Amino acid sequence: MTEEQNKQMMDAENNRSQTNMLYDDVRKIIEAARSNAVRSVDFCRVQMYWHLGKVYSWKNNREKNVQTMAPIS
To answer: How far apart are CA 73 and CA 55, in angstroms?
Structure first.
């Protein structure tokens, strides 16, 4: 193997290594984004249930108060 061929092989190996590092970095960014998205959805779901409970509780209490204030016949 000539020195030129050896140099070309080394350059090709370095390029593959850099490409693999780039793919690893991209993979990590995507995985972090997925994880953040799941947490955001979970937080929004908790907020939704909290608001639903608040509305239900408010309407339920309002109905009880109306029934309590109804005239006795």
So the answer is: 31
pTM above 0.85, yes or no: no
Tokens of 26: 């991209």
Distance CA 55, CA 63 (A): 12
Residue corresponding to tokens 């937080």: 43
* Distance of alpha carbon 24 from alpha carbon 56, whole angstroms: 48
Cα–Cα distances in Å, from 52 out to 36, 41, 45? 24, 16, 11
Q: Does residue 37 sit in helix, strand or coil?
A: helix
- Is the pLDDT at 73 greater than 60? The verdict is no
What's the half-sphere exposure (Cβ side, CA atoms, 13 Å) at 60?
A: 6
